[in-house]
Amino acid sequence: MNRVVVGFDFSSGSAYAVDLAIDIANRWQSNIRLVYVKEKKEDEAPIRAEIERRIDGVAHLLKGIKLEYVLREGKPADELCAQAKEDNAELLIVGTHGMSGMRKSLLGPNSYRTIEQSPVPVLIVREDFNFNKDLESIVVPIDSSDDTRQKVGKAAMFAKTFGSTIHLLGLYTSTTAEIKRIVNNYVKFVERYLDKNEVKYITKYFVVEKNVTETTLEYARQVNADLIAIMTEQETRFASLIMGTHAQQMINESTIPVLTVRPTNVLTDTAIH
Fold first, then answer.
1. What is the pLDDT of residue 25?
2. Is the pLDDT of residue 108 over 90?
3. Which of 78, 85, 87, 89 is the most buried (most CB within 10 A)?
4. pLDDT of 55 over the 90 cut
5. Neighbouring-strand partners of residue 139
6. 258-261/122-126 β-pairing
7. Residue 117's CB: how many other CB atoms inside 10 A?
């Protein structure tokens, strides 16, 4: 059984991450591993006692799965990614602090290393998101980059798990015929993939006026989205997107959970899975 790994540090953001992890893992029938990255001289005993107390408090929510934890020591981003790799995790979940931005110990100035280095998709959730709302709408931007379609498989997995509708955004970062042709072809391929996998979807096309992130966020707010799926590198040839300035903008500004998928070296149509 694969695992869902959660970065945990006693903050309210990480507590929300655990709640969401339980919901997801119950549906996937995956065990959960909490990862607390401690400082070198930090006393383990009170940490373990508090984590175990909190695990006992949510034990009744677990449906045939296990919620376990591990203490690691080192750089938080390195340790979270190492644990995800060791556990052959399906997903790494990290919680953040509302409008104050990311907790420095997990995703601060050394910041986006967790997302950049993670061998598995990373789900970033903020404590000010409405977690009482069902995951009904998932926004998936599709641009002209080679890797853009690789996030679709994981987004489709979430959609099937929760019965969600995927909102495909065909984003033209240029009005040139070549860019439009590439985007249109990619979107049509994704539509065929979603049809084959019986995933509901709605398709929209937009000419990007400012940048991909702002266009995506504006549309996500319009449809009251519950999740946005992005690549950690995307549209670099034209917009210097992810994992650069625009990725940080997406993660910092989005009150909606963001699922980040790291591209593989596979650039064929089989890369969606």
1. 96
2. no
3. 89
4. yes
5. 167, 228
6. antiparallel
7. 17
Per residue, the 3-state secondary structure of 82-131, as one string, reads HHHHHCCCCEEEEEEEHHHECCHHHHCCCCCHHHHHCCCCEEEEECCCCC
For 63, list phi and psi in degrees, rounded to 5: -115, 85
The alpha carbon dihedral of 219, 221, 225, 226 has a sign of positive
In the block, tokens 């987004």 appear at 155
Q: Mind spelling out the 3-state secondary structure of 186-234?
A: HHHHHHHHHHHCCCEEEEEEEECCCCHHHHHHHHHHHCCCCEEEEECCC
- CA 135 from chain centre, in angstroms, equals 13
At residue 263 the predicted structure's pLDDT band, cuts being 50, 70 and 90, is: confident
Distance between start and end Cα atoms, the chain? 19
227-231: strand order across its sheet: 67-73, 31-38, 3-7, 91-96, 122-126, 258-261, 227-231, 137-142, 165-172, 200-207
Beta carbons within 8 Å of 17's beta carbon, 6+ residues apart:
6, 7, 8, 93, 94, 95, 125
pLDDT for residue 133 is more than 90: no
pLDDT higher than threshold 70 for residue 131: no
Residue whose token pair is 């060791």: 86
CA 225 to CA 140: how far, in whole Å? 10
Q: Give the count of beta carbons closer than 10 Å to the beta carbon of residue 191.
A: 16
Q: Does the N-terminal peptide bond of residue 99 adopt cis geometry, omega within 30 degrees of 0?
A: no
Q: Map residue 81 onto helix, strand or coil.
A: helix
Largest Cα–Cα separation, the chain: 63
Give residue-wise pLDDT tens across range 180-193: 999 999 999 999 99
- Provide the token pair at 67: 């919620």
